[in-house]
Backbone:
């Protein structure tokens, strides 16, 4: 039999939450309705520092050599802006807003300052997960099916700032209230 503590119960994240582009900035935008929720992943490559006589993983002799963070959101809103967000390097025609393939270059302006997922807990707190310098890197695919809604899986990857490689690429917070 499992006995749950109040802390365990209150830390349960409920529902799909909301996804924002540039959360907390003047150009903050609620991304779109979601279907299938969202996810957040941190990938780390951990290297064992090998030494003579090593018997296995040794405390203090391991280091993170690469770290990447991703958010995947399942968008229902197929605005031209959301489609452009999904296709790195694509061009948008000024008058018609038609999206076409680009030159292969990804402009610095295509990186989103941040993408933030906010979800509530049973304890009435908020989990706020933010990725910085986000760019879609899984392309664009949409399927349209009779009597169903289209959903676009948008995977955004956090990127290090080349001018400050020690700045965070993600942040996970727990807040009592949203500002």
Residues:
């Amino acid at each position: 039999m499992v006995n749950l503590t109040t802390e365990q119960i209150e830390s349960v994240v409920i529902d799909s939450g909301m996804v924002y582009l540039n959360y907390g900035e003047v150009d903050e935008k609620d991304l779109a309705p979601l279907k299938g929720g969202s996810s957040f992943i941190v990938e780390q490559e951990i290297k064992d520092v090998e030494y003579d006589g090593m018997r296995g993983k040794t405390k203090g002799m391991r280091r993170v050599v690469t770290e990447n963070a991703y958010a995947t959101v399942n968008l229902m809103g197929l605005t031209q802006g959301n489609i452009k967000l999904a296709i790195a390097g694509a061009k948008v025609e000024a008058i018609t807003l038609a999206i076409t393939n680009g030159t292969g270059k990804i402009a610095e302006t295509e990186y989103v300052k941040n993408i933030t997922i906010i979800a509530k807990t049973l304890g009435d707190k908020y989990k706020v997960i933010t990725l910085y310098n986000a760019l879609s890197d899984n392309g664009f695919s949409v399927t349209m099916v009779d009597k169903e809604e289209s959903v676009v899986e948008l995977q955004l990857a956090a990127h290090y700032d080349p001018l400050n490689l020690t700045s965070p690429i993600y942040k996970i917070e727990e807040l009592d209230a949203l500002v």
